[in-house]
Design brief:
The chain has about 120 residues and is mainly alpha-helical. It contains 6 helices and 4 strands. A two-stranded parallel sheet has the order 1-2. InterPro entries: Endo/Exo/Phosphatase_dom_1 (IPR051675), RuvA_2-like (IPR010994). This is Helix-hairpin-helix domain-containing protein.
């Protein structure tokens, strides 16, 4: 009985490990080199090119912007990378975007066009 439980537990753990990685999105605008290299199809040179372009010219707006700014990343390649878990632009911000949108309401009223932060 213990062996059966152990075998099922190991199988479930392996299943979760494999599929949880597949659903973890890596945001191209916040990821470091190691995170980018974790995406199938991005090697050290491409990760460096993405980081260099992002550092020099700011965040990527969308998939089209990424493919235009990073040499060697055409539209088809970017689509494949998105299928592998690469997230690009504001549409892929998820909970962080919702918090950022809610943050101004939590800061209080505005005075002379500048937000007034209320400390608790």
């Amino acid at each position: 009985m213990f062996k059966t439980f152990l075998a099922k537990f190991c199988a479930a753990a392996a299943f979760i490990a494999v599929f949880s990685h597949a659903f973890a999105a890596v945001d191209v605008n916040t990821a470091n080199e190691d995170a980018l290299r974790g995406i199938k199809g991005i090697g050290p040179a491409k990760a460096k090119a993405i980081l260099d372009e992002r550092t020099a010219h700011g965040p990527f707006k969308d998939a089209s912007d990424l493919s235009k700014r990073v040499k060697g990343l055409g539209g088809h390649t970017v689509e494949k990378l998105q299928g592998e878990g690469l997230a690009i632009g504001p549409a892929n911000t998820g909970a962080a975007g919702a918090q950022a949108k809610a943050a101004p309401a939590a800061t209080g009223a505005q005075k002379n066009g500048a937000p007034v932060v209320v400390k608790k």
